[in-house]
Each structure stands twice: as C-alpha cells, then as structure tokens.
Amino acid sequence: MNLAEGVQIVSFGLLGLMMIGAALGVVLLSNIVYSAFLLGGVFISIAGLYILLNAGFVAAAQVLIYVGAVNVLILFAIMLVNKREDFKPMPNAWVRQALTGLVCVSLFALLSTMVLSTPWSLSNAPSAGDDAIVVIGKHFFSDFLLPFELASILLLMALVGAIILARREFLPDDTSTLQPQRQVFTLQERPREAVPALSGGRIKSSQSGAEAPVTPSDRLDP
Amino acid sequence: MNPGIDLQGSFIQALVQLGLPTDIARLVWLPLPMVVMLIGATVGVLACVWLERKISAAAQQRIGPEFIGPMGALAPLADGLKLVLKEDIVPLKADPWLFTLGPAIVVIPVFLSYLIVPFGQNLLITDLSIGVFLWIALASITPIGLLMAGYASNNKYSLIGGLRAAAQSISYEIPLALSVLAIVMMSNSLSTIDIVNQQAGYGILGWNIWRQPVGFLIFWIAALAECERLPFDLPEAEEELVAGYQTEYTGMKFGLFYLGSYVNLVLSALFVAVLYLGGWESPIPLSLISNWFGISETTPWLQIITATLGITMTLLKAYFLIFLAILLRWTVPRVRIDQLLDLGWKFLLPVGLVNLLLTAALKLTFPFAFGG
Description:
Structural class of chain A: mainly alpha
Helix content of chain B: 55-70%
Radius of gyration of chain A: 30 Å
Distance between the termini of chain A: 85 Å
Number of strands of chain B: 0
Shape of chain A: extended
Structural class of chain B: mainly alpha
Oligomer: heterodimer
Number of helices of chain B: 16
Radius of gyration of chain B: 22 Å
Strand content of chain B: under 5%
Order of helices and strands of chain A: HHHHHHHHH
Largest sheet of chain B: none
C-alpha cells in the first residue's frame, strides 16, 4: 500500500464518520438551528466523498448549491420565523416516536435489501478526472439536450420573473380615489411591555391616567 | 511539460539524490507551497492594513502611524499582537460552540481559495481544471459562518447583522459568477493558468479588461461587496448596528473576522489581476524582448527573471487594485441596505446577464478575438 492509497482510505473513514455523525445529529438534536448547521457538515462531507471518487466538478457544485444555497436558505427560514409554540405534554407520546422509529427502520431495511440484491452493472471505463467538465458539457449538448434546455429555460424564466417582481413599483395615478385610507403596516412580533423611557415625572402622569402633553419646559425641568 | 521552472520536480530530484525514497521526498515537498502561501497571505494582510492606515491618513491630511518601525511599518504587527493578548470573552448566554466555530468557518474557505492563485506558469499550489469555480463555491460557505456568528452571540444586533451580511454576500455572488462566466467562455477553461495564458502574447493589449470592460466593473463592485468593504460595509455599519455580527467578539476571534475580510480583499484583488489584467504577464511581453536579443526561453537565468517578474507583476496589479479599494473607502459614503440590494438584484444582475449574452454573441461572430 503506497502513500496515496493510505491517504485515501484514512480520509474515506474520516469523511464517513463525519457524515454519519452529522446526519445523526441533524435528526436527533432538539435544537433546530444546530440541525441546520450540521446539515451543512453533511453536505461538505459528501463533497469530500465526491473528491475521493475523482469527481471534482460535482464536489464543487455540491458545495456551491447545497451548502451555499440550500443550507443558507434553510437557515434564513429558521432564523426569520418569529413563532414560539409551547407544546403541551401529551399522554402516550411515545407511540408517535415508536411509530416513526418503526417506519425509519423498515425503510432502512427495504433500501439495504434493494442495494444488496440488485445486480449493479459497474462501468469499467476510466474516470474522466480533470476532463470531467468537458465530458459533462458534451453530454449536455448531445444526449441530454432536451432536459438541459428545459431546465435552463425554466431557471431563466424564474430569474427574469424575480427581476420583474423586484423591479415592479406601485405608482397609482390618483391616490385619493384608489386608496382612501392608508393601511399601517406593523411588524409581526410578539407583544411586549412598554418600557417607560422618559423621566420619573412622565411615568407618574401616565399612571394617573391623564396623558399630560410634554412641553419643552417639562423636559427641561429636573 | 510546459517550459518554465519546475520547483517541485527539482526539489524531489534533489532529495532523491540525497538518498530519500521518492514517496518521502514528495511528502516533504507537500506542505512547503501551502506554508509559503499562508505566510504570503498573512504578510499581504499586514501590508494591506499598513496601507489602509497610511492612505486614509493621506486622504485626511494627517500622517498616520509613524513611530512603530520605519514609517510605522510595524503598526499592523502591533495591532495583531494586541488582538492576541486581549481577553477572549464568551458572553454568558451565548452558545459557546457556535460562537467559537463561526469565525473559523468565515476564515478557512478564504485561505483555501489561495490554492488556485497563480504567480507564474508553475508558481501555484495546484492547477485545478475547475479553478475559478472552486473559488466561487468556497466563497458561498462564508454566509454560513456569518449566520452562525450572528446567531450564537445571543444579541439582536448581531443576529440582524449576520442576516444582513449573509443576504449581501448571496446577492452579490450571482453577478460575480456571471462576470466570471463571461471570462471562462472566452478562454474555454476554468483553470486560472489557462485564463492567464489566453491573455498572453500581446502584452497590455491582450488583457481581458479591453474585451470585458463591463464585466470588469461588475466583478470589482461585486468583489468589494463580498469583502464587505466600504461603500458596502453594511453588516458592521457602526451607526445603525453597533458593529453587526461582530458586536460580541473580542480578542483573536474578532481578529479572525478582521483577518478574513482583509485576506478576502487581497484575494479578490489577485483574482481581478488574474482574470482581467493578465495575471503574471508584464505589459510588454518578456518573450518578445528575449526574442529581440535572440535568447532562448529555456535559459535558466531568463527563467528566474521571468518568475521574479511574474510574482512582482501579479502583486503590483493586486496592490494597485487594493489602493483603489482603500481610496474608495475613504471617499465614498456608505449605501443603505435597500440601495445595496437594489443595486445587486436590479442593476448588476441584468447587466451581468446582458454582458454574458453579448460575450457569447461576440464569440460566435469574431471567434479570432473572443476565443472561438
């Protein structure tokens, strides 16, 4: 066993451990933000496995799309949702967990029997390695032309649509007839207690019920 | 094998002649370019910080650092030392793991991107066939680190700052990638070496900036926004956000963010030099001069001169761009967040798309000039 093979085996083991550990963390941790960050770790280790398989382009695309786009999107979705829900303790809650576990185990068994029983036809062609981009490009423009064109037209439409949506500005001609009263937009937040920010005299007057107008002389009074 | 200095080959050969097995000799070679690149990047940051202080002082008609070393040249070192010695505080209710991991995730991809920066025909760590694509993919990891730092600080300003920083770097990555794509289309390769070689031969006239002026502007604006340089340093806008996602960071963790942003600036400048300004090529091609004097390109002393000139040229171009960035920082006011997003999505993205389509059309029409 020479140097390169040893490095490959060690890094395969490390990447596998990292991937399985992170994937278990995604499922088992109760903190959803941790799960989202660990998902990034799973994607990164999959990219590492792609590099070990001599597929550099796929690895870079994996990092760009899954880590850079999908995972960041998930994180944004988690961090921008401002909703807190208290779960009530339920009787027989373990039934759900047991059922979920059963479904997962049976799915795993099904997939592993499928993997073991299928006669995989392995290709004997040498891996493309550094020429992978050229090979992928040729496939795109020969035998996968239709799906490639369809996907790119769809994506282009989505992109142009997003630009048009962002550029659209509402400029009604006559505001008095179209919009009689303006709706006041408020942030969707949990209601919070008002903090008395002014001096002590101001609080007293508001507690007594009479909303005394603050005059400049009031403010100057110590 | 292309002509030029083969440092790796000669180093391994020398070690093998000393009696080491080939595998061990390769193993000894392996960390050398990486360490050289790490040291180079760090020294580049120190030079950058010193330049920033000197140029900002000149812009404000004062002197700047003066007493620490000759002309204050050791001031950035003193800054670094101060950051190392400061107390490392983790806020009480912060998430200690994510809080520590955040700066690392921001810094590591930036340093990894130095893998593909070429300083000469053979003077780079590795010539990957997916070169520039790797850089764009690695740059897309940074928002996760920013979000992590913002979330873990347990501070509203940090969270908002992290979200803003991530939104900014996502929106400016698309125009950046589009302008790079136009270059890639012209040079038929993603490898940085091929991109520079495509611009070689005609000296300053062959550089991509003349064929891609719009792409150059888009790239430079987007790169500045990616590095969070003014006028785009919204994530740490001190008036509105009290330093954004770095509010709670002290000591070396803050230093890592600082280091990361400067390393990223140097890296972006290097990439502009490689993609648009001819990389290591000098304005007057050296091969032309050597042909006039009738010297073969494989002469050893000429190769050493070529390599030295290549490194010098790359650094000169990069530091010229850094000078521009610093000057920009001290003359241009900061944009608002809605202006920033408007500029990215409504202006740079359509212009980048049109630029890409125009490049494709020109490539089909004039294949001799646009790399057909």
